[in-house]
Amino acid sequence: MTAPASHDFSFAIHPSSDPVPAARRAELLAEPGFGRVFTDHMVTAAWTKEDGWHDAQLRPYGPFALDPACQVFHYGQEIFEGLKAYRQAGGPIVTFRPMANAARFISSARRMAMPELPEDAFVHAIELLVTQDREWVPNQPERSLYLRPFMIATHVGLGVSRPSPSYLFAAIASQAGSYFHGGPHPVSVWLADDYIRAAPGGTGAAKTGGNYGGGFVGQLQALDHGCEQVVWLDSAEHWWVEELGGMNLFFVFGSGSSARLMTPALTGSLLPGVTRDSLLTLAADLGIQTAEGAISVADWREGCASGGITEVFACGTAATITPVGAVRGTGGDWPIGDGTEGPVTRQLREHLLGIQFGQFPDPHGWVHKIC
Ligand code: COI
């Protein structure tokens, strides 16, 4: 569904009259975890068939009043994004490749038959929110402000003959420490063999809530088997590795100057991660050969047994780069390398964070200054 040509993105600014005092904010930020502490403001905009985008606002963070019959509650017409704001040494607050997130928000909207939010409005919304809540952007190493833009269907009615004719866009912001409980560490993963995340022609490549809601059953199985994340396999054979619960996967073959990197190809059922894309470029910059391809459960297991696969890591905006230390499944368990973070994983994580935090050059112009 294409937005009408007319849209009004002159955001009305309504600052909070009751922001969290600095001392309380400092307390909240001592142990922020991930996605638990929200800032003082949010951005919202409405869309209707008649008026296109309108009523754009920056306003105090708070609950929405929504009719219980809104379509989003019943049919899950919803999309979201995730990106981060970083405080660089010396002061500037930046974000990373926001246009890539804006573009993916558009492709998710198309798949979910929702209106497209223009890329410049997406980026402007982020800029306004971060600028208003800049005191919330942490200055501790590796901490950032996680930004969560999303859009929901607001039409009141239970019919499913058409997509909703009205929507609400919003962006909220939350402190991001470590995504995983207990700080960054190698995670163990569970191979899902009786559920799937996505199938060809489905919504797997869209960032829509249902992909995650439908994945919790696999995540629960992973937790029951002592693993932190579920690995999703392809829908037809349950054999080809696709991605983790909320992250893409990378495999390192070989070591030293002959190390090469491989990640499952975007077949249409995987999420095209911005971090995934950035790492393919970054690895090539560092002289590491990269490939997008297919890897089976047997390839993974045998590769680890023979020593051909030396490292595996997961990547995403929220969790950045997280080493995978061990694999479990109904067919057996195996370790990856010595179970700790390997040198290629470390090198890529340091480079990516180095660019985001301004300690490394940014040859691709990925860093976007906000204030
Ligand atoms: C992200 O990495 O931004 C994600 O969307 C993963 C998850 C928190 C849903």
What's this, in brief?
This protein is an alpha+beta fold. It is built from 9 helices and 19 strands. A hairpin with a 2-residue loop joins strand 17 and strand 18.
What would your notes on this structure say?
By secondary structure, the protein is α+β, with helices and mostly antiparallel strands. 24% of the residues lie in helices and 30% in strands. It is built from nine helices and 19 strands. The protein has helices spanning 22-28, 71-75, 98-111, 119-132, 209-213, 216-224, 274-285, 297-306, 343-356, and strands at 12-13, 34-38, 41-48, 52-60, 78-80, 83-87, 93-96, 144-153, 166-176, 187-191, 229-233, 241-244, 248-253, 260-264, 289-293, 309-316, 320-329, 332-335, 367-369. The strands form two sheets. Strands 1, 2, 3, 4, 5, 6, 7, 8, 9 and 19 form a ten-stranded mixed sheet that branches. Strands 10, 11, 12, 13, 14, 15, 16, 17 and 18 form a nine-stranded mixed sheet that branches. Strand 11 (229-233) and strand 12 form a beta hairpin. Helix 3 (98-111) packs across helix 4. The chain is globular and about 60 Å long. Residues 1-5 have low confidence and may be disordered. Bound molecules: 2-OXO-4-methylpentanoic acid (COI).
